[in-house]
Design a protein that fits this description.
This protein is mainly beta. Helix content is about 10%, strand content about 40%. The chain has two domains: about 160 residues, SH3 type barrels, CATH 2.30.30.600; about 55 residues, SH3 type barrels (Roll).
Length: about 220
């Protein structure tokens, strides 16, 4: 994105769909499909496809930020490469709404990745819906838990190459879609066919959804 290179080092504000507070900070780096901001406490790696708008902002308040370098390789920076760099580092993943996922990227497939959270356990995340990736500095751990108490766990099932194939593996299981933000997204995954899924909710209601609208899925 050569268009953005002249404003590297400037302070910007972004409009991101679904994000209540607009990300603000210093524009650190840009790649073909991702931009990097520093907001004074965290680096925000934001897939470019979710940027509705970006504008320059006032530098006076922002200039007090003390930048702490995170050891990420920014050579030929790209979304998938950032995910690879994040493996093993305590990270915040923002997708939509008021909630974020906190934990660790454990596996990266073609169009989704596996995220291990101490709250939700193993979560399968569709890459296209991730709005930002924010690694924590130093040796931070979730909820300041000791590393002895917080042990990463492998995915409970074999991994498929694509998100729709992974969903197919979960047919018949009780699942939670999109972190349970909607009661109609919790139920038994009854069937998947031609990119449509059928979910049976607690009261027996049949809910149909296109797979492209599923952001995350995990087992209760």
């Amino acid at each position: 994105m050569r268009l953005l290179r002249p404003i590297l080092g400037k302070y910007v504000e972004l409009t991101i769909p679904g994000k209540r507070v607009s990300p603000r900070g210093k524009l650190i780096d840009v790649g073909n499909d991702i931009v990097v901001l520093y907001n004074g406490t965290q680096y925000l790696y934001i897939p470019a496809t979710h940027i509705q708008s970006m504008s320059l902002t006032d530098e006076v308040e922002e200039a007090r930020m003390n930048e702490t370098e995170i050891q990420f390789d920014h050579t030929d920076i790209a979304y998938r490469k950032i995910l690879m760099n994040a493996k093993g580092i305590f990270t915040e993943i923002y997708i939509h709404g008021p909630q974020s996922l906190h934990g660790y990227v454990t596996s990266i497939m073609n169009d989704f990745f596996v995220f291990f959270s101490p709250v939700y356990r193993t979560v399968y995340v569709a890459m296209e819906h991730v709005k930002s990736i924010s690694p924590y500095e130093g040796n931070a751990t979730p909820f300041y838990m000791s590393k002895e108490r917080f042990a990463l766990q492998p995915s409970p099932m074999a991994l498929s190459r694509t998100f729709d194939q992974q969903l197919k593996r979960l047919e018949g299981e009780l699942v939670i879609l999109d972190l349970g933000e909607d009661p109609n997204k919790i139920g038994r995954l009854s069937a998947i066919d031609n990119n449509m899924l059928e979910l049976i909710t607690a009261n027996g209601q049949r809910v149909f959804m296109h797979i492209r609208h599923v952001k995350t899925i995990h087992l209760p």
